[in-house]
Structures are given as C-alpha cells and as structure tokens.
Write a structure and sequence with these properties.
homodimer, about 400 residues, alpha/beta, Arc Repressor Mutant, subunit A, Nucleotidyltransferase, domain 5, 5-stranded mixed sheet, 11 helices, 12 strands, about 40% helix, Transcriptional regulator (chains A, B), DNA binding (chains A, B)
Chain lengths: ~400, ~400
C-alpha cells in the first residue's frame, strides 16, 4: 500500500499546530536549544530548527550564541522568546477609578496607571479619562502606536458582542456609548470590552488563587455582588454576553445582601456606604455584636446566590473576590457552613489575593490571547512563504 | 531553506484528524466516490483512497462496484459506511419504567424495549429488570455480546465519575448500588451511567428541538423538576458530576412548584400525583378557574429556577421537557412572560417533542460517542500499521 498520505493543504494545519507548540515552549522558559525545544514539544529537530529560524527572522525570538568553549562537542546556540516584540494594555474602567496595566508579550507588567473618576462622571468625561490613562501608558513606556498589539477594557454590567452595555450598567450614561468605536478610532490595534466580573475570573485562573482549576465560580463581593464563570477552562460569556448575572434575581438575595452592612446599627451616618461596610467588618472583628450580626446576615444572603451557582454548575473552586474579600477572615468560614447547608456538594472556597488589580489583570490576559492569535497567524503565513521559496 | 518539516510522530496526529474526517464524510451520506469524499473533507484523493481502503479492510465501509457502463470515462466505485459493524444500547432506568433502545453505528434505532417497574422496587429488583431488558435487546436483534460497542444507562440524581448516585436519588436504595460494576461484569463493552436530565439535554441537541444550539438549558418539568446544561456544545457534567441540580435550592422554588398542581381544589383525591397533574392541565384547558390558578402558580415558581439558570448562563435556548411538556400550550407563554419579568435577556423557549424516549435517546448518543472513539482509535492503529508495511 503506497501513495502519499499528506498533501500541501493538509500540512498547513499541521504547521499551525507546530509553530504554536514552539512559541509556547519558548515563552516563560529560559533560553533553550533546539534539542530542548524538540523534547519539550515532541516535534522533530529539523521541524524545530526551521520554525526557530523563522521566529528569529520575524523578530519574535533572539539567538544567544554559545559562550566559552566546551571540551565535549560543539556548544549549541540557544533561542529566547523576544517578549518586547509587542505590548498589550488592560484597563479597568470602574465607578470610582481607572486602572491601566501595560505588559510585554510574556505578560510582564511594565507600567501601571491609576486615575480617580467621579462616580457621577458623564460617559464623555469617563471616556476622556480613559483616553488620558492610555496616553499615559504610551508616554511613560515610550511605546509607538504600532507597538500595541491589543487593548482590552473592563466595565461593569453585561457586555454584548459589540462591546456595549445596553442591558444595564451602574456607570452613568455608559449604556449609550460605544467604547469599541471610540477606542478603535484612536488606536490601531484590536480593541475589546468585557464585563468586570468575567475579567476578574480570568485573572484568578491566570495569576490568582484558581490557577489549578478549570471550573471556577468567581463571586465579586462588594457593595455590588456579581459573578464570573470559567467552565472547562473557558470564560463563559453567554449567548448574548450576559452570563453570570444571577444577582439580578431577587430570590437569590444578592440585590439586598449588602444592605445588612449598610444598615448596621451604630455605624457612623456621615460616611459612604463603602466605608460603612469597612467599618462593620473592622468592628465585627473587634467583637461588636451588632456588627457581627450584620456580617452573619450578609453572608447568609450572599450564600443563597453562591449556592444557586454551585448547584447549577458544580465547580471545583469558588473564588471570593471584590472589596469585601479583604475581610475574607470573617466571610469564608460562615460562607462554607451556609453552602454545606444549601448544596449537595460543596467546592473549595478561596479568597482572592489580587486586590483591586484583578479586573485590569484579566483585561491584560485577554489582550495577550489576542496577541497570541496574531503571532500564530502571522507565523503561519511566514512558514508557508518559507515552504514555497 | 530546506529540511523536512514533518516527522513520523507529527504525522500520527494528522492521520487521526484525517481518518475521522473520512468516517464523518461517509456516515449519514449516500454511497460516495473518492472524489466526492475528497471534496467533502478537503483531503487529497490519494489520502482518501488510502483511508477508504483501510476502512473497507477493517469492515467499516463496503464497496459498491459501478453498475452499467458509462460512455464517458470509467465509472467510479463508491463507498458506504457499514453501520452494522457495531451496535450500541441506551437505557433509561426510571422510577416507573425501564426503556431501552438499540441502534447501529449510524444511530438508527433497530429495537425498543419497555418494561414497567414498581416505584418502590428495591435496587436488586430494578437491576434485574434492567438486565432482562438488555437481554431482550440481544435476543430480539440476534446480537452477539461482541457486537455491542457501548452501553449507557440514565438514572435520576447526580451521578459521580464512577457511575454512582451517592449524593441523592429518588430510586429507592439506588445510592448504595454500583451499576457500572454490575453491568461491566455482564457485558464486555464500555458501560456508562449518567444523570437523566443531562441525557435528555443531549437528546434535544441530537434529535430534538435544540439541534441548532450550542448553549442549552434543558428543564425537566414533571412531578420532579430538574435541569441539564449544554454549554459551548458540550454537556456540562460538573466537577463532581452534580451540575444542573439547582432545584435542590429552596429559594428557587422548584422543590415546591408541583405542589400547586397536586393541591389544586376539586382534583379527585383517589388518583396518583402524576394523574392529578394531568387532570389539572386538562381541566385548566377546559376553562376551570381553580385549575388555571394552579397552573399559573406552578409556572410562576418554575420560572424562578429557570430564571436563575438563564441569568447565570445566558443560553441560546431553554427547552421545556419532562411529562408536563405535553401541556406546553399552557406553560410556554406564561413562562416566557415570567422570564421577561425576571431576566435581563430572555432566550427562546421551546417545548420538547421527544416524549418519554428523550433520556434513552441521550444515552444512545453517549454510547455512539464511545463507538466513535473506538472507531477512531482502532482506525488510527490500522493506518499506522499500513504506513509501516
């Protein structure tokens, strides 16, 4: 039985897989020889050799020539991923703040920008502040517009496929704006807008407390309560971008849960709701009975929505994030007890440690995913060109 | 730039993809020529030629020699998938009945067996009845044990990775039995046990009203209320096999929803709860005010759990299945209205038309998936062997 089993068309598919394997084997590793890369990818040395040469000619890898002289054989040259070949930005556009992160293609953060925004700022003011934050990223890192490979922005409320939040958002007037169109007109790279809870969930799996998990329910616990879902390792966006919005259902009590903290007897009347919640947690920790009751009632209500998600999805991990996760010492244990009462199988509950950078970090991760796609598709065409020549 | 870009190892991956493509292009199509298969798969004619020859030698395809004589050129031989190369079984083990389906590798049902079981039957009696139902499948279809490629059984309650329902099941005593061990000792093929709502959801995407959808919330509406989830085209099992069990949460009202039907004033006291629900739907349809109120209250409670799933997952379609879906004319419209009130984005709601075969059909589909895997892995080794010779 003879005859070729593969054709040029068939090989294109294979080359795509192979070049991705080599890029992955280079990134996040010390400089590597062709032999090391072949062993790490399972590809042949000649395949790896060809792919690394193309990566070098495209500027995505650098060659490190062997130093010194070995007495045994000829020392091999090594290859290193050129993380500075491109940059990505992730921005959290919140009610009170704008937080932007710039990273290289390895995901290493090279600049952080943080600006306050008035909670009642109208959308044009908020967009202008976003624009200035991004401009600051360019100035401080001396990047040219073409150096930016992707820009992702996180906002509150369900985000549809066009990046708009027409169903609902607490950002004043934001449901009327088109942030993708606004940013695309200013920056030449692909622009994405995504929901803040979803991005925070992505961040927990990338750099947070859920790196080992493929099935994650992220609960944002703060003066608003929200959720982001990662299922089978994939961010669950939903058919219309509105997954995770279970908090809108009165029956699961997330709408009213924070009111137990806000209405705690004894709290100073003059401070903001956020500060009042912080006061309640601090006072409860110090032993105040009213504050402890308020926290207990808050957790009991938080647990109903969390239980609905746990029963619906049976995740490996529940991550407690958001501002109140700073008081995880008062929340985790009673939350676990409530879930034991309400659920058939209780997953592990872990408190986020990413602080208020989680949304911007998740935005950075989505930007890096886009950069990976670009690298892959450009790499593929380069490989095909090499093959033809 | 020279040197081979592929190696023998790399090619094994490609062959797996290619042989699967050809099997898929053969199945569910009329007898096809190599040219037709090449065009349908995008593979080269020599590749398809080699793969079809192996499929024929393995008994998975048959050759149809050209009949008559063509005046233009030599008529081509055609290949047909041999669906009778193997068979699969799917069984629904319910509280009241055991329903088994036998199908060939194309999924065409060749035999159906249905047996009554007493609702209070102890697990050994139920397993014996299951055994007799499967034996009936073998007898009536004249299958030998080796002809059976996979056996999947659907049961009520969350099923863990070992096929057991230790958390909870309404089948008396069933949480103590190990149905996979029981059946594996009797039949030489792979055996799977899965939750009934999950299997019904699979059936809706395979042969039911959700064939166009990748994101499906299936709601089983009957004297019990349950859910099965398909997300991104994949059945959501959950980390511990307990996904879809949101009905266990009192706050979403599925536990008590059917009681509105059971306690409807005027219903005959002597009939079973199931018959009472049927009586309520019939009487409501005839205009009885009490029955209409009972249905309205039932739907209002059903909608809370459905809304929790819709808000959490934002599916494309909600499928209303289970015994009460026969009364979809009374349920769909008020359910849609309630979801509009409770949800941010309301998906399409469709009533199942698969009747009481849906769980067994879903079990059949999982058995066919296993058969596909077997075909693929055996085909792959045959291809490798051919390559080596």
């Amino acid at each position: 039985m003879t005859g070729p089993i593969t054709t040029g068309t068939d090989l294109a598919r294979l080359r795509e897989l192979n070049s991705l394997s080599v890029v992955r084997a280079l990134r996040g590793n010390p400089p590597s020889t062709v032999t090391e890369l072949a062993s790490r990818t399972g590809l042949s040395r000649p395949s790896v050799d060809l792919i690394t040469q193309i990566l070098v000619s495209e500027g995505w890898a650098t060659v490190i020539e062997p130093t010194g002289s070995s007495v045994v054989g000829r020392p091999a040259r090594r290859y290193q991923f050129n993380a500075a070949a491109g940059y990505v930005i992730g921005v959290d556009v919140g009610v009170h703040k704008i937080l932007g992160l710039v990273a290289d293609l390895d995901g290493t953060v090279v600049h952080t920008v943080r600006r306050q925004v008035a909670p009642d700022a109208d959308p044009q003011v908020r967009l202008a502040a976003l624009d200035r934050a991004i401009a600051d990223c360019f100035t401080k890192t001396k990047l040219a517009p073409d150096d930016l490979w992707a820009l992702t922005v996180g906002v509150t409320g369900p985000v549809d496929a066009t990046g708009r939040t027409t169903l609902f958002t607490p950002l004043p007037g934001w449901s009327a704006v088109d942030p993708v169109a606004y940013l695309t007109a200013r920056y030449p790279c692909p622009v994405y807008v995504e929901n803040d809870c979803k991005l925070a969930a992505v961040a927990e799996r990338w750099h947070g407390v859920a790196q080992d998990a493929d099935d994650i329910v992220y609960v944002l616990a703060g003066m608003r309560t929200g959720a982001g879902l990662i299922l089978d390792g994939t961010l669950r966006r939903g058919y219309g971008g509105a997954a995770g919005e279970i908090g809108a259902l009165r029956a699961v009590r997330w709408l009213t849960a924070p009111s137990h903290l806000e209405n705690c007897p004894g709290a100073p009347e003059t401070i903001s709701p956020d500060d009042k919640a912080a006061w309640v947690f601090t006072t409860a920790r110090a032993g105040n009975a009213d504050a402890q009751t308020a926290v207990r009632r808050y957790v009991r209500d938080l647990a109903v929505g969390a239980a609905a998600l746990v029963l619906a999805l049976d995740p490996q991990v529940v991550v407690l994030g958001g501002g109140f996760s700073r008081s995880a010492d008062l929340i985790l244990e009673p939350l676990h007890r409530e879930l034991q009462r309400l659920c058939l199988r209780v997953p592990e509950i872990r408190a986020s440690t990413l602080g208020d950078e989680s949304v911007a970090l998740g935005a950075l991760r989505l930007s890096l995913d886009e950069a990976d796609q670009r690298m892959l598709s450009t790499g593929l065409s380069a490989l095909s060109a090499a093959r033809r020549s």
